[in-house]
Amino acid sequence: MHKVLEILKKKGHEVSSIEEGSNVRAAASRMNEKRIGSLVVTRGEEVVGIVSERDILGRIVAAGRNPESTVVSEVMTTPVACCRSDTSLEECKGVMTELRVRHLPVVENGKLMGIITSGDIIAFEKKEQQHTIEYLYHYLYGTAPEAEK
Known about the structure:
The chain is of the alpha+beta class and 149 residues long. The protein has a single domain, classed as Roll (CBS-domain), CATH 3.10.580. Helix content is 45%, strand content 19%. The protein has helices at residues 4-11, 24-34, 53-61, 72-75, 89-99, 118-141; strands spanning 17-19, 38-43, 46-52, 103-108, 111-117. The chain starts with a helix and ends in an 8-residue tail after the last helix.
């Protein structure tokens, strides 16, 4: 069974975060600059929430609130669902589906170690399926994969 750590080994452990007291405009600017859909919200080293494009759209734009004077802690999603590096990808998919979220911070012993997204899981599974298809093709037709020739 595949684990979160397998994705983090390829993706890396970098996580974009923002302090809970920052304003929403700063959060939106950081997400836009990095071309990402969410930021992990922290209080020092502690993960206290997550703020996503959906949070900003629904709780700021649609509500007519000022992003300059609204702090992230007022609009973030909390509590935030997290996983560990040894969590199975199946379990992550189940949590994401049940809670309707696309991002799971990876936390070990209270420390933020990375983040996994639904897109990361889809890409990983696609690559795994492609390997299986290639293996079965070569098995059925008795040909050696390109790497073995």
